[in-house]
Amino acid sequence: MQVGIAQCSVVVPTVGRPSLDVLLDALAQAPGPRPAELVLVDDRPAGEPLRPERPGLPPVRVLRTGGGGPARARNLGWRSVRTAWVAFLDDDVVPDPDWYQRLAEDLAGLPADVAGSQGRVRVPLPADRRPTDWERGTAGLATSSWITADLAYRRAALAAVGGFDERFPRAFREDSDLALRVMDTGARLVRGQRCITHPVRPVDRWVSLRVQAGNADDVLMRRLHGPDWRERADAPLGRRPQHLAVTAAGLAAAGLAVARRPRAAALAALAWAAGTGEFAWARTAPGPRDRAEVTTMLATSALIPQLATWHWLRGVVRHVGVRPWRGLPDLVLFDRDGTLVRDFPYNGDPAFVKPVPGAREAVDALRARGVRVGVVSNQSGVARGLITRAQVDACTARLEELLGPFETVQVCPHGPDDGCSCRKPAPGMVKAACAELDVDPARTVVIGDIGADVEAAAAAGAVGVLVPTPVTRRAEVEAAPRRAATLTEAVGQVLAGDW
């Protein structure tokens, strides 16, 4: 099946670095067909609004996360688009002038079992001197697998696995984790021909200490994907065994000194010094060896083994019993009366549409994370002649005035004896909502106040959450596999991935 670039959106998470302007200028000036849209996801907790306006860019939208890390930013980006493909770019890369055309060629004609296409990365290094330790590390991106500096995924593949795992809090391993989960579904990832340049970002001399936090993420990768995850993700082990040994030698030296065993303490200290010296030389020898680089390597090499070990141990403790990532659902459907608004039986008067406490905040919280929302409501008063369909629609319009727009509203006007397939607990409305929005029922949650809501969800293949009210029968409460005391709590569970 041929896929045009018009069926692709570009998502760029950003923290407002100056490099974003360079990226936008490159995208604006590049020739070739434009994608459907460019979505910038501002991941700063606060700050001046982004100003991406430039002639030549595709249609631009700006979203804000309030600060949640790159995984959450990318998730918000891809959830907000409706195209078949989503191309991710980092905000510190520069696409080649033919990037649009090459992207279109890379995606055209890909077999259905291909879920993603990675671009090629070029990392320029200084020509007049040896690269520094940080520059050599950045150069590794050129040969890395499945990094989202430039990687296009089918949107359906992202939805099937819940997108990026937001338990990875930094730009490290979250892309490898996603790739492994996508490939675990039987899909393939391929390399395209488009190319970007990834300049070496300016950093301070202590950056190598901060990146040691990634050792905790390596523990999470092992817990999620097993001991062979490095081979599958093409991620070398690095020096963690040596760091453990050096740290152990340092601790032994300190402990033996306290125990007044000077000879043994001296031997342990010598082992620590030898390990630290070897590490410092391994980092210094390939570099420029100027005074600034040498002093930085000596200072950080003395600290990195201990920091790496600490973060690794922190990950071991933190990620005990971790479960596979499900992500957020694609769609949350709400019952209306008794769930979103107070239940006035057979209400046809918009003046009596009164939201339950926290309803607007709960629905807005889902929208803010890119989760689509809808309503599924039994309205048997129409069949009974107590209200008209026009009155039902007027109450729905008032609901949207109070709680904001819903992407789908399904109403069953039939009575309990009409034998329709839409009246809950039948699954008709849930299935219709999913079909209208092209959402898998398995990625859908239904929240309601009676057993029929939960049963309709189960019959459709969705997940039901019961929020009981005083009129909910005890047997319905006991039978519900998932319950929450309030609407706010139910939505909180969904946003925490517990659904």
UniProtKB/TrEMBL annotation:
Region (Disordered): 45-68
Protein name (Swiss-Prot/TrEMBL): D,D-heptose 1,7-bisphosphate phosphatase
UniProt-listed InterPro entries: Glyco_trans_2-like, HAD-like_sf, HAD-SF_hydro_IA, HAD-SF_hydro_IIA, HAD-SF_hydro_IIIA, HAD_sf, Heptose_bisP_phosphatase, Histidinol-phos
Compositionally skewed regions (Basic and acidic residues) per UniProt: 45-54
Keyword set, alphabetical order: Carbohydrate metabolism, Cytoplasm, Hydrolase, Metal-binding
Keyword Repeat included in the entry's annotation: no
Family to which this protein belongs: Belongs to the GmhB family.
GO CC list: cytoplasm
NCBIfam families found in the cross-reference section: HAD-SF-IA-v1, HAD-SF-IIIA, Histidinol-ppas
Residue ranges of every copy of the Glycosyltransferase 2-like domain listed in the record: 9-124
GO biological process: one example: carbohydrate metabolic process
Gene Ontology MF term list: metal ion binding; phosphatase activity
Subcellular location: Cytoplasm
Residues that span the membrane, as ranges: none
A Pfam family annotated for this UniProt entry: Glycos_transf_2
Record bears the keyword 4Fe-4S: no
